[in-house]
Each structure stands twice: as C-alpha cells, then as structure tokens.
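Quick log. Single chain, no ligands specified.
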Amino acid sequence: MLNEKFKNLENIYHQIKNGYSETSLFGKKVFIKHATAEDSALIAKEKGKFDKKSKKLGVMSESELLDFLQRNGSWSKEEEAFSEKTEKEILGLKKTRDKMILKKHKDAINDRIKKLEEDVKSNRKKRDSLVRNTSEEYSEKKSNEFFIRNSLFKDEDLKEPFFTLSEFEELEIEEISEVYANYNKSLEGFSNENIRQISIEHFFFSIFSLFGEDVSGFFSKSHFNLSFYQINLLSFAKMFRHIFKEEQIPEDIRDNAEKIMDHLRSEREGQKKLKETKEKLEKSSGFGFSGASREELTEAGIDVGGAEDIHSIASKKGGSLNMEDFIEIHKK
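-> predicted structure:
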C-alpha cells in the first residue's frame, strides 16, 4: 500500500501536469492557475502602472522615505547597509565552515553565524517598522491583488474568472485575507524539495525516460506556456538522469533525492579535502592542523600516515628546533 508521502507527491505531480490546483473558496469550487513566465511579465507591467499612480498621488518612494528618516535621526546609513554587509559575512563564513574538517572548528563558526543571523533579523525588524506606506509597497500590494484575481477561475479550462474586477474590489479585508490564505494553502506543497523528489519517483520518471534530450514536448505546451512548476520538474529530472548515468549512487539512497544530493556534495567535498591534505602531507613531514591532534585528524577521515607534527619532531630534537631543522622539515 502506498504511504501517505508517496500519495501526496503523486497528487502534487497530477496538479503540476494539469497546470492548476483545485480547492474551494466561499463555499464554491475554484481552480488556481499555476504561474507562467508570461504571467510574471504581465504582473511586472501592471506593477509599473501602479507605481506611477502612487507617485501621482504624492506617496513617497522608499529612497525618499529613507532620506527623510536619516535626516531626522530615526535610521542611519550604517543601519541601512548593515543587513547586506552582514549577509555577505555570513556567506563567507558558511564557505569557510564547509572547508573545515574538525567538528570543533565548524561549531565555532556556526555559533558566529547564528549570532549574525539574529543581528540581521533585529535590523530588518526595526527597518520594517519605519519603512512603511511607500510607493513601492503600494504597487506591490496592488500588483499582488491583480495576480491573485487573475489566478482564480470557475472552470478547469481556466477561461472564466472567479472574480470580476468590481467583485474583487468590493471584498472586505477579512474576505481578502481568506482568499490569500486559501491560495497559499493550496500551493504550499509545491516546494523545490517536493518537486525535486517527484522528478525521481517511478510514476513520473518512468514516463520521462521515454523522452530523449529534448523534453520540450513532455507537457504538450509551448515553452512560454509552461508553468514554473513544470519547468522546475523537467530541470530536476534532466539533472538526475545525468547523475544516474555518470555517478555511482548507492542503491539504498537512489529513491531519495535529498540524500543523493547530500551524497554527491559529501563525495566531492571529501575528495577535494583529501586531495589538498595529501598534497600538503607529501610536501612536508611537519605538516599539521593548528589545534588538531593526530587522533582528531584520523577521526575526520585524514590518514596522516607517517607524518609527524612539529611538537613530535621537536621532542626528538631535545625540545626545540633551529632554523636548519625547519629547513630540513620543509625541504620537499
């Protein structure tokens, strides 16, 4: 019997294939169209119109409001630059952490990352409380409403809108909130993780395998009419087809997309680290990691072989090393 997760994925795929999701709103059946690139272009165009309208009404832009807040001392240039600057630091720390071998070094960097992420969250919270009711916020709100209204239909052919413009504009705040809540709930299963997993499931991949390198006809649609979910699914499927062909994937994880990706990352990072470490070990008998014992290196998967650390060599030399000793150690 199929487990619940498998059945859910199959249902999600069925909706991706159809290009819409079905739910109910105000006691009536509604069909939610999945967004396409053409939809995004239309929304961007409408957003521009709303932005011009807000400026005609005298609503300040975000940059104008920021200048005003900086002049009266409510918000500084340093605070404005903080989040972007700190996020770059976090990204750099994560790259450094991924190159680390010892757990204690990784833990120290993780603690620093956590502190910086909390600082960014606090900075953004303050900014959000000050930078409000801008022309950008107005155009974003109105374009979102436009998008939602044009995504809801009464029929599965997606021809008859669920709301006319006047009907939507007459909705109360509570009703609009219900529309947004239903929309978000209906599409919450379409995460990249789920779509990635669907791309290797038998109910999809067995059909996908019938196609060659050109999969443009899989959904029997023009490229421009494909939903973003359909595009993502085909992209993931092509990627995994290449992986299964070129990589050695253990049998016990071949049905788990997340574990496959973790395995490949681990393999490649491990090979890179071992290569770098072996090259250094080959060049110097005195090579070592600062703050790492031979036992920790071995635990991390590094074969130190006959290499000796500086302290071990020094003990054999009576407790100290002169310049000639260092030259001898590193002469390779």
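The chain has a mean pLDDT of 85.
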